[in-house]
Write a structure and sequence with these properties.
Number of strands: 6
Strand order of the largest sheet: 3-4-5-6
Helix content: 25-40%
Distance between the termini: 57 Å
Shape: elongated
Length: 143
């Protein structure tokens, strides 16, 4: 953030006086300096004037890893933020699909986090299992 500055009207011509207001860019700072110089009243980023907006919808296609008898199994070794967001969106938008995420192991969703993959899935209502359970289901023909 840049600080808005105005010129003092004292002996030291060119001295700068810093105002308490900060801007996000040099161009904003220059614009506010000009408004101040011409004594034009304005509001800079008034908190009570926020305008709601929605990001445009983007369309994507999901290619399931494995489908067995109408059930979808998404195999995940690493479950990064983009994958988490994608799986939550797919499951919310297609509740009629039977999707299970198969993890290599339960681990934190990111370094230093206490939230494990299993915790995240339970919180978001996603079906999941671990690869050993999936392998056992294959061996026992329980898919």
């Amino acid at each position: 953030m840049r600080t808005i500055t105005t010129r003092k009207r004292r002996l030291g011509v060119g001295e700068l006086q810093q105002l308490k207001q900060k801007t996000r860019s040099g161009l904003e700072s220059q614009t506010l300096d000009l408004l101040n110089a011409y004594k034009i009243p304005y509001q800079y980023e008034p908190k009570d004037k926020k305008i709601e907006w929605h990001k445009p919808i983007t369309y994507h296609k999901y290619l399931p890893d494995i489908i067995i008898g109408g059930k979808i199994y998404e195999i995940k070794g690493y479950f990064d933020k983009m994958s988490r967001d994608k799986m939550v969106a797919i499951c919310e938008q297609h509740p009629h699909l039977d999707i299970t995420i198969v993890f290599q192991k339960d681990q934190p969703i990111r370094k230093g986090s206490k939230t494990m993959y299993s915790d995240f899935c339970q919180k978001k209502g996603l079906k999941f299992m671990f690869i050993e359970e999936f392998k056992q289901m294959i061996r026992n023909n329980k898919l």
